[in-house]
Amino acid sequence: GPSSECNMNKINLEELTSDTGLLFEVDKGENTYAAEDNITEDTFNLVYSRLDTEIACLNFDQLMKTMQDISGSGGVFKETKHPGYGPGITENSVVEVHYAGFFEYRDEPFDSSRLRDETFKYRVGSGKAIPGWEIALLTMKKGEISWFLIQPEYGFQETGCPPRVPRNATALFEIEILSISDHVNVGDFFLMSEEERYAVTFESICQLVGTYKQEGYTFFKQNHFQKAVQKYNKVSSTVFFLICCSGWSALDSLRLLL
């Protein structure tokens, strides 16, 4: 199995609210999901009609006894719900997943890619996810659906992120692997290392920024303001990289904002 050693640094709260942070978005309102995302009760029930009856009454201590310890230290446990196929995930793999995260005795997820109707892409080994996810993903294959019980020291640490994530919270994640790739392309710009970003041509970056701007405008017109802001943030972050970290002139870079 994968190594039980992982980065146990304290959570950076700024990362918790970032676009590429620790797997959930902090909501400043009372509702778990913003009204602008147009998530209706019918949608919620359709997506989680299978899960809610299973998870609502789960005792995590009892569940743990039926699962496999994949961390070797009692920090991350796994139960395969649907086996995958083909080669397994490795370090530096780019994976596209659907996932949902639950706390004990709560039938509503604290985070869900399906309820946002948006898959999540992640580069394994980048260290931008909670440590338990790094361990979990390295045990999976394409098409697999598995449950992972992640203890606080491998998850959101002792502090959590109240009120969304309680202190010392053990989390149950269901993860489904949709695709696995061994390389990154320009569309995965924010999953690239700094060295890989340097190798991307200016023309390719212009096309990428144009795509972000168009997607942001589309979300804005549809009143999906949070998603629009995320796209526009990617535009500004890309331009910032060009100005500060590449050889392109500030003038050429700033033209991308227009």
TrEMBL record:
Taken from the UniProt entry, a GO cellular component term is: cytoplasm
Entry keyword set: Isomerase, Repeat, Rotamase, TPR repeat
User: Which EC number(s) does UniProt give?
Assistant: 5.2.1.8
This chain's protein is named peptidylprolyl isomerase
> What species does this protein belong to?
Octopus bimaculoides (California two-spotted octopus)
Q: Where is the PPIase FKBP-type domain?
A: 92-181
Superkingdom of the organism of origin: Eukaryota
Q: Which SUPFAM superfamilies match?
A: FKBP-like
Whether Oxidoreductase counts among this entry's keywords is: no
Positions of transmembrane segments? none
Q: Which reaction does it catalyse?
A: [protein]-peptidylproline (omega=180) = [protein]-peptidylproline (omega=0)
Q: Which family does it belong to?
A: Belongs to the FKBP6 family.
Single Gene Ontology BP term? spermatogenesis
Q: Which InterPro entries match?
A: FKBP6/shu, PPIase_dom_sf, PPIase_FKBP_dom
Enzyme class label = isomerase
